Amino acid sequence: MNNVIKLAAVFCAASAVYAAGTFQLWDGEEGKPQVQTGLDNNSETSGYWFSYADNDDGGKSKVVWPVDTRTDTGESLEAVITHCKGVCGTAILSKSTLKYNPFVGIGFNIAGEPIGGGDPDAADATDWGGLCITYTSDTQADLELGLGTFDPEIEYANPVAKLSKATETPVMRAIPWDKFSQPSWYTGSTKISGPEAAKRLVAVKFKIQAVDGEYNFNIKKIGPYTACSQGEAIKVARGASAVKTILNGRTLGFTGVKSAATVEIKNSLGQVVMKGSIDNAAATLNLASLDAGIYMVQVSGKNVYFAKKITLK
């Protein structure tokens, strides 16, 4: 597209952006067909899983589901979720006349379609802090932030986070908004960061793009960033970290710190309530000013990315 629209202008022209609500962890084990994003626009059309492929661009890719998805009113993945305890299938990638690798994707809308129909609305998902996903995939995948009518303006170079191959055991990944970025191949002038995309998010998409072949996948769980904070240290976007935290009363200590890093303390809504820096294993952070409750400790630096849930009493 020759005419490039500046990001600020697109924000003003976008559909109504709904305020952040409570995003409930979607767990395929529960068999529920709808993701409760907390941001529905009152149309009750948000959170339903859909699939898409490269057919409009010349590809012949498709998803083969393990059970029949046809219903009296169209297609639904409810039977798939019941069968797989998640959203599972086989991505059949076929390049055909495409000039790039073929793809398929599975996703859900954040706010839903406007009452009366039309393009899906955007929603402000900033307070989620990011996304937590548990999945399996025979090849690397992308967790992509869909921006609706803005996608063509950035040549579909949507902010993504890379998900590693996980063939058998489901892998959990916690990815904050600032770790989503546009792909390196994009050279356009209209840029958008992960946090900016979160402010006007339309859809969350699990995208498999690779050479021709068959790739199995299963999306087991998805929720806000803090949904991954279950017990011990979690492996996140940049891999496992040697950093650990030690909470002694209201003093938070760290081990395994080898270089300067930033520490953020986030509440249950993903809001940063305290921020500091550490540069060695003896560093501590005083949390005396915080109210009792559950918090997420996030440590990020050049060679480290770590997150863990703590409880202050």
Helices and strands, with pairings:
Blueprint: H1 7-13, E1 17-18, E2 26-27, E3 49-53, E4 62-64, E5 70-71, E6 74-75, H2 78-84, E7 87-93, E8 103-109, E9 122-123, E10 130-137, E11 141-146, E12 160-163, E13 166-176, H3 194-199, E14 203-209, E15 213-224, E16 244-248, E17 251-255, E18 261-266, E19 272-278, E20 284-286, E21 293-301, E22 305-312
Parallel strand pairs: 1-9
Antiparallel strand pairs: 2-15, 3-8, 4-7, 5-6, 7-15, 8-14, 10-13, 10-15, 11-12, 11-14, 16-17, 17-20, 18-19, 18-21, 21-22
Protein model, in words:
Helix content is 6%, strand content 39%. It is mainly beta. The chain folds into two domains: 7-228, Jelly Rolls, CATH 2.60.120; 244-312, Immunoglobulin-like. The strands form six sheets. Strands 2, 4, 7, 10, 13 and 15 form a six-stranded antiparallel β-sheet that branches. The radius of gyration is 20 Å and the shape is globular. The termini are far apart. 40% of the residues are buried. Residues 1-15 and 230-240 have low confidence and may be disordered.
Which sheet architecture does the biggest sheet show? 6 strands, antiparallel
Q: How many alpha or pi helices? A: 3
Order of helices and strands: HEEEEEEHEEEEEEEHEEEEEEEEE
Strand content bin: 35-45%
Attribute tags:
single chain; Immunoglobulin-like; 3 helices; five-stranded antiparallel β-sheet; Jelly Rolls; mainly beta; six-stranded antiparallel β-sheet
